[in-house]
Design brief:
The protein is built from four helices and nine strands, in the order ααααβββββββββ. It is an alpha+beta fold. It has a single domain, classed as Beta Complex (Metal Binding Protein, Guanine Nucleotide Exchange Factor, Chain A). The strands form two sheets. A six-stranded antiparallel β-sheet has the order 3-4-8-7-6-5. A three-stranded antiparallel β-sheet has the order 2-1-9, with no helix packed on it.
Length: 178
Amino acid sequence: MILRNIINLTINRQERVKNVLSGRHYDRFKATVHGLNPDISVMEAGVGMKVEKTDAQWQEELTEEQYHVCRQKGTERPFSGEYVHFDGEGRYSCVCCDQILFESTTKFDAGCGWPSFWEVVDKEAVKYIEDKSLGMDRIEVVCSACNAHLGHVFPDGPEPTGLRYCMNSVALQFKKDN
């Protein structure tokens, strides 16, 4: 019963996002994201990388799941991540390179199964890449320093931004405020 409710919740959220991202709504959303960082908002992966390591180095440094999500653009299962229901005070950084990405004050419970934030700590911390995989129009979010796949951003978040940065827990590490 619980699994069925989770599946229905996920399907309903996907349908709402699909409706928001259809046609001209998607173009408007894409323009909004482009406005966050016009120089890098819709670009090829790998451009401007600051942390460069070989695939073998990434495999050696990351867990199997971290490697799958961050380097192969995978996704962790919904409601399985360490930070889905976590609400400590501090900052979230990239698990691959330690770049600060999100403040805990911008985290919210979206009910989607992944940690969600309504704003990045700095507009230069992430890059946005148009993602048309899986038959959907989405905006992928990657770390600007190491190009790690973090998740996607959607236009169904709370004010003041209206954005939902839907991130994979395994792509993040939490650092408590002192």
